[in-house]
Every structure is written in structure tokens, then in C-alpha cells.
Amino acid sequence: MDATNPLVTTPSPLRASRVRPGRRVADRALRISCLVATVVGAVVLGSILLMLIVEGIRGLSPTLFTQPTPGPGSEGGGIANAILGSLVLTTIGIVVATPVGVMAGTYLAEYGRGSKLADIIRFLNDVLLSAPSILIGLFVYTLMVRPMGTYSGWAGGVALAIIAVPVIVRTTEDMLRLVPGTLREAGAALGAPPSKVITSVTWRAASSGIVTGIILALARIAGETAPLLFTALNNNSWFSPNLMGGVANLPVMIYQFALSPYPNWQGLAWAGALLITTTILALSIIARLVIKPQNAR
Fold first, then answer.
1. Cα separations (Å) of 29 from 43, 52, 77, 86?
2. Which end of the chain has fewer surrounding CB within 10 Å, N or C?
């Protein structure tokens, strides 16, 4: 007990010596557990990546980017039609999602602060952000494929756009909230309306972050398979200019060819998986390079 204050007790050296070793043991055990979990995760992911690289390089050929997918049991061929179809579908998806996502994120950050409507929209966006992609595919199938009576690239693009929108909304809102309020006040002091301040000041200040969100959304939808199974399906030949009927795409092609008993198809599936992985890796690196100047400010 402290001599100056009878209500304050001083821990004895014996009790402190008993507590400290226990804390050290717990800290060391937790550190070892985290290290083991990290090593296990790294080994599993590394083995998957190594297998993908080895099998994917083995499936590469000069005709991979020039010929369409071959028929069952045939030799040769490539995945040119699937690559082109994936480019078309992702382009439609990101073109539709970008203005919707950026405008919605701008409303939440600039106009909806403290608004109940903004809270509801933010909650629905979070739900949509974590929604299973196969559910979105079923929704678009009911909304577009069944009334149209056929699969189409338009339905596939809409499904991918729905997946990309919440990513862009969340990133746009977060980046606009990081813009200092003094910039908005300076624009308002010059007599500029809020719309002019947003387009000329806040969007410019957060442009790299918004672009990063768009790139991340593009990387997210580039490898989606489940929604395309219900909307665009697949095609072993080139798609029609109106995008009606099945449209060849890499994710569904990989899914179907990997399950086939034909070695040629399996090799093309490995090559397509390597191509998608490389593309997503490149987009992720570009997103980090774009957002780095934003963090340095």
C-alpha cells in the first residue's frame, strides 16, 4: 500500500514476476501461430501460382491468339474468340458501371452527408458489394435473357456492370471524403456553384483514386464466371456483331474446357487461366501506381 495514499496499492515484485512470464509466453505463442499461418498460406498460394505458371506456359502456342476454340476431340486451335469476347463484355460492363458508380459515390460524399437516404443507399451498396455473383447472374437472366429468349453479350455486360458498380461507388466516396474541405470552401468563396466545385475541384483532387477504383472494378469483373453462365454463356466460334446468342469468353471457356476429357482443351484452359491471372496482376499493379501519387500528397 502506498504511504502517501492509503487507497492506492503498489503491486508486489513477486506478483509482477509471475505475470510477466505468462504474458511473454502468450505473446510468443501468438507470434508463432501468426507466423505458421502466414507460411501455410504462402505455401498454398505459391504452389497454386507455380502450377498455373508451369501448366499455362505448357499450353501456350503461336495459334493461341489467332484461332478460335477447337471442336471436341480436335487438335490445335486457340482462344482468340474467347479473348475478344471477354474484352467486349468487360468493356460493356465498365462503360455502363463507371458513370453510375462515380455519380452515386459523388452524391454520397458531397450531397448525402447526414441524410437517411444516403445511409440507405450506402447500406444497399454494401449488400450488393458482398452479394454472390451467381445471384446477380440469375437476376439478369430473369430480367433480360428470358424476355429476349436467348443469351446475349448485352446481358453479360449488364451483369458485370452490376458487379462493378458497388466497387466504384465505395472507392469514389472514400476518395472524395479525403479531399480537404478547405478546397470546397475556396471554390464557394469565389462564387462557384456546388456542381462547378465538384467537377473542377474535388473530382480533380481525387481523380487518381477514382481511376484506381475503376481499375479495381475492371480487375474484379475480368475473371467472373458465374454470372456469364446465365447471361452470355459461351460459343466456340466468333460472336455476331449484334452480340445476340452465346458469346465466347475466357472465364466460361476455362470452366468448360477444364472439366472436359480432352487434353487439348485442358491445355487451352490452363493457358487462358494464366492469361487472366496475368491481366489481373497487371491491373492491380497499375492501380497501385496510380494511387501512389494520391497518397504522397
1. 21, 35, 55, 48
2. C
Residue pair 253/225 in contact (Cβ under 8 Å)? The answer is no
Q: Which domain holds residue 141?
A: 80-296
In a domain, 272, yes or no: yes
CATH number, residue 268: 1.10.3720.10
Number of compact structural domains in the chain: 1
* Residue 43 within any structural domain of the chain: no
User: Is 158 part of any domain?
Assistant: yes
Tens of pLDDT along the chain (297 residues) come to 555 555 555 555 555 455 577 788 888 999 999 999 999 999 999 999 999 999 999 988 889 999 999 988 888 889 999 999 999 999 999 999 999 999 999 999 999 888 899 999 999 999 999 899 999 999 999 999 999 999 999 999 999 999 999 999 999 999 999 999 888 888 888 888 888 999 999 999 898 889 989 999 999 999 899 999 999 988 888 888 899 988 999 999 999 999 999 999 999 999 999 999 999 999 888 888 876 655 555
